[in-house]
Amino acid sequence: MSAGRCDICERKPMYGNNVPFSQHRTRRRFVLNVHRRRLEINGVQRTVNICTRCLRTMSKLPKVRK
Question: Which of 19, 21, 32, 38 is least surrounded by Cβ atoms within 10 Å, i.e. has the fewest?
Answer without folding.
Answer: 21
